[in-house]
Structures are given as C-alpha cells and as structure tokens.
Design a protein that fits this description.
Layout: E1 4-7, E2 10-12, E3 18-24, E4 31-39, E5 46-52, E6 58-60, E7 68-73, E8 78-83, E9 92-100, E10 103-109, E11 113-117
Parallel strand pairs: 2-11
Antiparallel strand pairs: 1-3, 3-8, 4-5, 4-9, 5-6, 7-8, 9-10, 9-11
C-alpha cells in the first residue's frame, strides 16, 4: 500500500509564501505522477497542479498559474508546491496525490495540510 504524507501548511499573511511537501512511501522509479488539489470548507475539491515524473510536464489551474510552482525530489520520492503571493482565497486543505506506474487509474491520497491565509 502506498502512503502519501503532506506537510508544510500553516498560517500566513496575504502576500506571503509557503512550501508544501509531499512524500510517498515508494521509490521514485515507480511513480508516474504527483499533484495537488485543495478543498475549502463547503466547497468542492479543486485541482491545483500536477507533475509527470516521466516527462517533467507540469499543469496548473488558472487560479494559481504564475504564483505556485510544483517540483520534485527524485532522491526523496517527494513533490513540493511552492506557493507565493498567497491570498485569502487560497485558504484550504491542500491534498497531495501520487499515481503509480503500475496503477495509472488510481490516485493515492494523503490526509492534507491546512493552509490559512489571513491578516
């Protein structure tokens, strides 16, 4: 079973930055892709960003394009989400997922890390 663990959330003022981390209990060679969604209270889960481990291609939602950057660390089987110029509307629980090469239709989810943007 694949375990996904997020960290790095917290309270930040508008305009501030956070770096979210996501670690997977698997070797990098078995990971096909990783990504982030977020969910605010009483709202639907929203796609944030994704990264293909085979091609390096990244995709961002319009709402975070230019402010957030997804990256990876092959040695640590991890992905990161650098979130800059955070705004109050970015407040949400950020959930990471990993897709394994031998199960491309399955997203393995973590529990999430809370990001709160407030004065």
């Amino acid at each position: 079973q694949v375990h996904v663990v997020e960290s790095g959330g917290g309270l930040v003022q508008p305009g501030g930055s956070l770096r979210l981390s996501c670690k997977v209990s698997a070797t990098t060679s078995t990971i096909a892709a990783m990504g982030w969604y977020r969910q605010a209270p009483e709202k639907q889960r929203e796609f944030v960003a994704s990264l293909s481990f085979s091609t390096g291609n990244t995709i961002y939602s319009d709402s975070v394009e230019g402010r957030f950057t997804i990256s990876r660390d092959n040695a640590k089987s991890a992905a990161y989400l650098e979130a800059n110029n955070l705004q109050t509307e970015d407040t949400a629980n950020y959930l990471c997922y990993a897709i394994m090469s031998d199960a491309l239709t399955t997203r393995n989810w973590g529990q999430g890390t809370q990001v709160t943007v407030s004065l």
